[in-house]
């Protein structure tokens, strides 16, 4: 799988369960891309995330079932968590978010499922030539966060895509 975009990943029942789970879990402050060290969260792309879910957790079960149904791929090992991003923490972020990055080489596929953003100004930017052209600023593809779900090979450079309007 190089890039797969799945509209309406969850059916209505599972979507509602997952939305409830996003509200019932506790979150801790962190940043993206993970693994890079910054002096403080606001020097990176600040976010908040839950602990990883395990096989007995409902969100884990729903995700795995739905992923396998929608893609035909069987999951061997997966890391699932919820992440929240608050626009009030993003005013310092460059127009297109952070420098593109690849995810861990311990994975075959990375994915993002957007739950509550409905705009091209929120979403994921995919870069095709970043490795050969480190000066590439704009992504080749912007996948808006309109309940669209994105899965891609970890070999793809990607970044958070956001545009922040400064408040006066």
Text of the CATH class: Mainly Beta
The number of E-state strands comes to 9
Based on the coordinates given, report the CATH architecture. Sandwich
Shape: globular
Q: What's the domain count?
A: 1
Give the strand order, joined by hyphens, for the main sheet.
Answer: 1-8-5
Question: What is the averaged pLDDT score?
Answer: 75
- Put simply, the count of helices is 2
CATH topology: Jelly Rolls
| Proportion of residues in β-strands | 25-35%
Q: Helicity level, as a percent range?
A: 10-25%
- Give the structural class: alpha+beta
The arrangement of helices and strands along the chain is: EHEEHEEEEEE
How far apart are the first and last residues' alpha carbons, in Å?
44 Å
Question: For the record, what is the CATH homologous superfamily label?
Answer: q2cbj1_9rhob like domain
Radius of gyration: 16 Å
Major sheet description: 3 strands, antiparallel
Oligomer: single chain
